[in-house]
Amino acid sequence: HPSFSWSPSLLFLVLIPPFPAPLSLVFLTIIPAIPGPLSQLFPLLIPVFPAAPPRLDTERCPPQQNWTEGQQGTLLCSARGAPEPQVSCSKDGTALAPGTAHPAHRAQAGTYLCQASNELGTAQRNVTVWVQCESGVPG
């Protein structure tokens, strides 16, 4: 949807395609407001909104995580992308909010499916959580 803004020296034209956009950038076109034929105007394209689908990497969403029973456990999983992706994780239909600390229990051990979504797509990764029992034996 184009929008316009006038100033004494510049005309700004912003084109923002609807999502999901096949382009990876949205451009701002700056046209100098110089009197004369149109052939003398040279538009300049400047990227103003880099767009990227979600990405879950091992740095932000480690595939194996260790917790200790009775202590605070936090499922670490965040994603990169633009717009900012929303991340959710679940195991056997039970959701566990990533980044939120809570007391760790043996029942939380297992493999979680974490999904990151934005307007450009969805990425997913399996994250295995090991809960170390009080006796030192993994649960």
Give your account of this protein's structure.
- It comes from Prunella fulvescens (Brown accentor).
- Residues 54-128 form the Ig-like domain.
- The chain crosses the membrane at residues 12-34.
- The strands form four sheets. Strands 6-13-12-9-10 form a five-stranded mixed sheet, with no helix packed on it. Strands 1-2-3-4 form a four-stranded antiparallel sheet, with no helix packed on it. Strands 5-8 form a two-stranded antiparallel sheet.
- The protein has strands spanning 3-6, 10-14, 25-32, 44-50, 52-55, 64-68, 72-74, 80-82, 86-91, 94-96, 101-103, 110-118, 121-132.
- 19% of the residues are buried.
- It is elongated and about 50 Å long.
- The chain is an all-beta fold and 139 residues long.
- The N and C termini lie far apart (54 Å).
- The model is unreliable at 1-31 (pLDDT under 50).
- The protein has a domain at 53-132: Immunoglobulins (Immunoglobulin-like).
